[in-house]
Design goal:
With 380 residues, the protein is of the alpha/beta class. It has helices at 20-28, 48-53, 61-67, 105-113, 135-153, 181-192, 206-212, 238-254, 275-280, 325-342, 357-362, and strands at 2-5, 33-37, 57-59, 70-72, 94-97, 117-120, 162-164, 167-169, 173-177, 196-200, 216-217, 257-260, 286-289, 306-309, 312-315, 363-366, 369-370. The strands form three sheets. It has an eight-stranded mixed beta sheet, sandwiched between helices. Strands 11-10-9-12-13-15-14 form a seven-stranded mixed beta sheet, with helices on both faces. The structure holds nicotinamide-adenine-dinucleotide. Nicotinamide-adenine-dinucleotide (NAD) is lined by residues 126, 128, 131, 134, 137, 140, 177-183, 200-203, 206, 226, 231-233, 236, 244, 261-265, 270.
Length: 380
């Protein structure tokens, strides 16, 4: 079987789906060839030479798509306009990438019409066995880390406190809203950089995780559990949201940086930081809104952009993992390679086993048939 790695064509996308190291692994495991589009890894610092040394065959764009049995990508393929990637896919070929099928129905239909087998990395069930394939967590971890660095770049002082001959510098205070994968990564990074960190989440389980990273878990005086199906957040009552926003109003007057990560799967992001709260922040404060792509947690976020409101910088970048392309490509490559290998247990024999919960959860189309949503597992 031949595996193909195209160069990502989406504007400002710097990641590549696999690294030279995983190229060598696939060849060792019995895949006949790995075709890599010339320049595919350059922006992530993986040179053509490094891919060649790992055993890859460098080819031009159209050959990656037409000559590969299995295509590995980061972003969902484009399916219209001059650069229509789905039309380049070999009929009955297999594609694995981020896809967000529920939001991209037209893409799913297009893949089905080409008879493709396709898998969405974003649909891999978050069960223990599938943690090694969990690219959403890998990218959220990077986004949380990078959020702190971006905030620090736009903040005029140290994050850590210092006593110097020129005077005593107080540590920066950071509020992190939402302590899922990205939020916890932001907490850990901010703590390592010496900031005082406070965090809030609606799920009670988050408290211990926040505290174990050396941050303070702040709470409202209202008992309501935020954990819904599968450990994911559910939408909270109006009373709870009002109570947490009251807490944030007070916090905004005290902290220097706010990083928001609050998301509810399949719903728009809750609006938690109002114009009034921004106005209450100190001049020079920074907000990083990691929920920008889902509409944003902050009223003044401009998705994909850096905005200013009063004297507060509001960062709404939606491509934070791509801004750390070597690291994000390395982790994504490990996730996607292990996922592919899990479907190829007998070396060359790639096979789709729909009784496998991870395969069934992430498969989008099979030989032209649209398969999601996956059935719920039968009760024990
Ligand atoms: P997410 O990105 O969907 O949401 C981020 C956080 O926002 C969540 O912690 C959520 O509780 C919080 N949130 C939602 N509404 C809020 C509000 N109004 N105010 C404050 N916070 C709010 O979440 P995620 O990072 O993908 O992870 C969610 C859960 O899934 C966690 O429990 C995590 O441990 C779990 N998880 C499990 C696995 C696994 O088992 N393999 C992998 C990844 C994540």
């Amino acid at each position: 079987l031949i595996v193909g790695i195209p160069r990502e064509a989406y504007p400002n996308e710097h990641r590549v789906a696999i690294t030279p190291q995983n190229t060598a692994l696939l060849l060792k495991k019995g895949f006949r060839r790995v075709l890599v589009e010339r320049g595919a890894g350059v922006e992530a610092q993986f040179t053509d030479n490094a891919f060649e040394q790992a055993g890859a065959t460098l080819v031009e764009r159209e050959h990656v798509w037409s000559d590969s049995d299995i295509l590995l990508k980061v972003r969902a393929p484009s399916f219209e306009g001059a650069n229509n990637e789905v039309d380049l896919l070999r009929e009955n070929g297999t594609l694995i990438s981020f896809m967000y099928p529920a939001q991209n129905r037209a893409l799913v239909d297009k893949l089905a019409s080409r008879g493709a087998n396709s898998f969405a990395m974003d649909m891999i069930p978050r069960i223990s066995r599938a943690q090694v394939f969990d690219a959403l967590s890998s990218m959220a971890n990077i986004a949380g880390y990078k959020a702190v660095l971006e905030a620090s770049n736009h903040f005029g002082s140290f994050l850590t406190g210092q006593v110097t001959a020129a005077g005593k510098i107080p540590p920066c205070k950071i509020l992190i809203i939402g302590a899922g994968v990205a939020g916890l990564s932001a907490i850990a990074t901010a703590r390592r950089m010496g900031a005082i960190v406070r965090a809030f989440d609606t799920r009670a389980a988050a408290r211990e995780q926040v505290q174990s990273l050396g941050a303070e878990f702040i709470e409202v005086n209202l008992k309501e559990e935020g954990s819904g199906t599968g450990g994911y957040a559910k939408e909270m009552s109006k009373e709870f949201i009002e109570a947490e926003m009251k807490l944030f109003m007070k916090q905004c007057q005290e902290v220097d940086i706010v990083i928001t990560t609050a998301l509810i799967p399949g719903r728009p992001a809750p609006k938690l930081i109002t114009e009034e709260m921004i106005a209450a922040m100190k001049p020079g404060s920074v907000i990083v809104d990691l929920a920008a792509e889902a509409g944003g947690n902050c009223a003044k976020t401009v998705p994909g952009k850096l905005a200013k409101h009063n004297d507060v910088t509001i960062i709404g970048y939606t491509d934070l993992p791509s801004r750390l392309p070597t690291q994000s490509s390395t982790l994504y490559s490990n996730n996607i390679t292990k996922f592919l290998l899990s479907m190829s247990p007998q070396d060359k024999h790639f096979g789709i086993d729909l009784t496998d919960e991870v395969v069934r959860g992430s498969i989008v189309t099979q030989a032209g048939e649209v398969l999601p949503p996956a059935p719920r597992p039968a009760p024990p």
